[in-house]
Here is the input.
Amino acid sequence: RDGEHHIDGISSSLQSLFFFKKERMIRFILIQNRQGKTRMAKWYMAFDDDEKEKLIEEVHAAVTVRSASLTNFVEFRNYKVVYRRYAGLYFIICVDANDNSLYYLEGIHNFVEVLDKYFGNVCELDLVFNFYKVYAMVDEIFLAGEIMESSQKRVLATMHAYDKLD
Here is the structure.
């Protein structure tokens, strides 16, 4: 057809939608306390250990000094950090600078609500002593650097099914 390139009978516009994923994605997710202790770190890009440690320190320094009256978005290197503070914990997602900040802010809130429902008023110690469950929950909600499941009921049902396996 005029102006369209076909590969195996699929138009280029459909290929761009389904097969050639955009580079926009979550780079990493952190949960840190006010003192800078990392309670969870999930990486969706390859970083060596020294770079990870440097990123953790820089993100903590950038987020914790901000006033509560400022936005929950911070330009960070060539990316953007979207964060939300709940009690003494910071839930942080690093994304591409052009990504929708509110989308990821809502993703953080949804994740915290799932944690709260699962643990019953979640606290930092729940994350420390049940870290494997927190990682499983992250893997249910976030997959390959994208938000994949927004249904709290589905995530909780999967987590309860995991509990029955123990």
Remarks:
- The CA atoms of residues 10 and 103 lie 30 Å apart.
- Confidence is low (pLDDT under 50) at residues 1-6, 13-21.
